[in-house]
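## retry 2 of 3
previous attempt timed out at serialization; input unchanged, resubmitting
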Amino acid sequence: MRDPKAASTFQHWMPTISMLLVSVISYIDRQTLALLSPTILRETHLSGEQYGFIISGFSIAYMLSNPIWGRILDRIGLRAGMMMSVTAWTVASVAHAVTSGFGGFAAARIALGCGEGATFPGGLRTVTQTLKPSERGRGVAVAYSGGSLGAIITPLIITPIALQWGWRAAFVFTGFIGASWLGLWWFVSRNLGARHEVEPVRMPSPRWTDATLWSFISAYALGGLPLGFVLYEAANYLAQSRGQTQAFIGMVLWIPPLGWEIGYFFWGWLADRAKRSGTPTVVAARRLMGICMLLSLPLIGATYLPAIWMVMAELFLATFAVSGFVIVSVAYATDVYSTTNSGFIAGVGAGSWGAAVALMMPIFGRLFDRHDYQSAFLITALFPVAGYFGWLWLSSRRRA
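## retry succeeded, writing output
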């Protein structure tokens, strides 16, 4: 016999689950190139620096499109906005299959970044529009965790396809799963227009002159930058420095994003717990992000570890730690600002992260070309330190 309460709960959470799935797909689309980069760079004769600029092209487009999509979703609604964005990035992802040079990959990557800018604005907008305030901490963790989950499963499903049919077939597969989600969203989103935010709007709107907004950007973009480094360079590090094959990389590259996935729920649980206990948001954020910063520092010594399993364990710890910067900073910002601007807030956070990645990827690529892996890891590990102390300074200006 069907349980009406369970069915109602599932229906209540289905929009948020749909956002989890779309963020899974967005990370499969973006991680396919990173995963297969050793093979693609070898076959297309692209350098590490060129690869870095290709990733930067995506990141710049992603940076610019995030706040734009946030405003679009806040104004025209989730249903139409997400249909538009996912259609655009699905076409862009498939376009990778017919490119072969630097210009083609850069163009396809920029188009992908433009479309994927709606991913996290859509997730946060869905959470604030469809869930109760007491459910939103878990909702953000669910919606945002699709990114880390996508990074976990990408090597497990894309590697066999690429080994059997070639790397171009892998990008064709990404188009198939994007089209499948669009069919799901067509049905799930039918009643979204009738939903309303359940929390009265009493909070201010974000302004570019506000120190609070910039403290959020500092924590999210700088604190979370190691996620981008691990996502985009881990495969190249294992191939170039550790001499591992594409098949082996596909077997182990799910480990770092697993730390990211676990971290989202762990730090989200701690943030909700602090809120229920009555701890002021700024105090809880300071404590939690301080712990995240300390846990991220061992990344400095990753290149000195003698065994591959030790390297993978360190990458796991690093992604677990810095995922806290993302979750805690989002919880901080949504506690300060009006929920009517949730799409824009999410867009600013993800866009600023994209800007930091865009700036650093060519630098990392150049260091990899020179086999200076130690410097790349050192620089990466110092970003959470800068993000934390930047957040401290800017948040103190707000209180002053």
